[in-house]
Design a protein that fits this description.
Blueprint (H helix, E strand, L loop, with lengths): L9 E6 L16 E8 L7 E7 L11 E4 H20 L18 H10 L1 H14 L1
Antiparallel strand pairs: 1-2, 2-3, 3-4
Length: 132
Amino acid sequence: MTVPTHLQHQPIVAVDDYHLNDAVYPAQTTDARALSIGRAQFDPHDFTAKVFRETATGRWSRQSEEVPLHRVLDLAILLATVVKRQTTGQASLSPRLKEYVINPSDYPDLVNFIQNNWGEFGPRLQELKALL
C-alpha cells in the first residue's frame, strides 16, 4: 500500500507496503501498512514519524500514530536499554532518560518476548547500529 499524500501529515520519506516487514505480525493480520517521516499534522514547521494503519474495511484508521522524531529515538533508546540490561544487570543505562522497571512482575514477560522474537529484533538493532 502506498503512503497517502492527501492527509494533513505530509510525507517526505516513505516506506510503502510496510505490512510485508512488520516483524512479528504476519502481513495478512497487521494493520500497519506504511511508514513515513514528514511535516507534522498540526505544525508544518515540525517533522514527525507516522505509522499509517488501516481498518478492517480498508480505510485509513484514525488510530494512525504521528510521533515527533525525538520521541521515536527515545523509544529506540528505551528498547536498547532493556536489551542491554540483560547483559549488564544495571538498573538504569540512559543517564538522560533515567528509565526504570515500573512493573517488575511483567518485566520477565517483556524480556522473554524480546528473546523469543530476537530473529526480528536482532537484525533491526544491527541495522540501526550499522547505519549510525
